[in-house]
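Human: Here is a favour to ask of a fellow structure person. Comparing notes only helps if you start from a blank page. I am asking you to supply a protein in sequence and structure-token form. Write it directly below this note and I will take it from there.

Assistant:
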Amino acid sequence: MAEFERYLKTLPVDETLEVSRFIAEIDNRNKLPRKDKLKMREDFQNALIYYGSIGVAAQEALSRLDLDNLGDFYVRPPTQWYPLDDAAKIYPISLTHGKMAMFRLSVYFKSAVIPELLQIALTFTIKRFPTFATTVKKGFFWHYLDTSRRRYGVQPEKDIPCCPLNVSRSSSQSFRVLYFRNRASVEYFHVLTDGSGAMVFLKTLTAEYLRLLGAKAEAADPEVLNINDVPSEGEAANEFARADKTLGASGFIGKPAVQMSGKHAKIKPCRILHFKMDAQQLKKAAKAKNTSITTYILALFFVAGKRATDEQEGDASIQIPVNMRKYYPSETLRNFSMFFGVRLPLSDIVDVSSIIPDITLQLEQKSTKENMSEMLNSTVRMVRSLRYIPLFIKTPLARIAHAFIADRIFTNNLSNLGVISMPPGLAEHIDSMDSVPGAALTNRASCSMVTFGNTVTLSLSKCTADPTFEESLFALLEADGVTPKVEGSELF
């Protein structure tokens, strides 16, 4: 590597020897196939070249790149495997061409991403998340996650957000790490995790990247894991059996909801939009209507959704995911979420203020521990009823059922990941965060919301070019004194 040789020539003799020993030691910590081994060596060389280009001394660079952070992850044989959690079991068997349950979490830094350091951050971080360092395999009755020892690489972002991964390839991974300008993103196949587990991974990766840049966290954060700690059994736990079995079970099937109008685009999503809002302005608007931010946004969705449909009768319904960890404290990094729907007849949707009381009541009644536990029980019972049916029989039946039910019982959805923080010393390097849901089968828009600092980012993943929903949403917010800064893509 000519560029690395030029870097070595800039160093004193003693530092040249130390750096050369460091590079040689990488191979001793790495028993991957030759192609991956050479690529990882190049990764560290590129990081050293970058440090040299910005004037970081070789000793400091070697300290930040300490190979102890590799642990023994890249030398151990891949022997561990994990059964899928109960929610994840449906995702691989319902896969159809071009359709995959993907979602994205992103962090926006105040300066451009340094790919060389993001790569090292991933190389160091992945060992702390053994259920992520896996590949999806077929068993006789269910799919499972098999440990995959490989170099996990970052990529420049070139494609449409949340594109399907090719999980059929040998040793393929179920997530990807991307970068574009000042944005670093992780896209996940839902088989791995839910929004909570995904955020822990993103925050830990972000903290390690910022450490490599020279930033230091001034306090601990339970959602920023120590990359050199031994993962606990609880982090890989399937928690679905924890619900109170005396509560019965509730099903997933419901009455079809009214869908927004607009022809489905051939490419999904066909547009990603981010409404970036001042948190204080949004809080003030919600307070003026004597409600919470979530309820206020839901009311806006109902009104904007009614304006965006040609239907005159029927019900609009918005899906709300629920993090079950708030009812059953858990450290699992796997799926542990359920959902419910807030439902209103179109005839009742007159204006924002008039529907807030009904939305508030439904949120209180439907999100109780008892109701959510019944849905957990339903999930567990469904999985158990199918456990002895061979996979080759289950798969076509699941695809038919998924296509028939899918998201038809909802008009759209709102996943609110809440307020996300980073430790002091790291937070000042971050501008904002956002979450992009994957494209739905039926719904014209899927929505997600994240708050970081004083910025609330509401993201819309569109499946139609019809702009009525987002234009109505913008007008409603502006009328209440909230002026969103709208960012996003052109039509794909």
Notes: The first strand starts at residue 81 and ends at 83. Residues 130 and 137 are 15 Å apart (CA to CA). The radius of gyration is 24 Å. Residues 34-53 form the longest helix (20 residues).
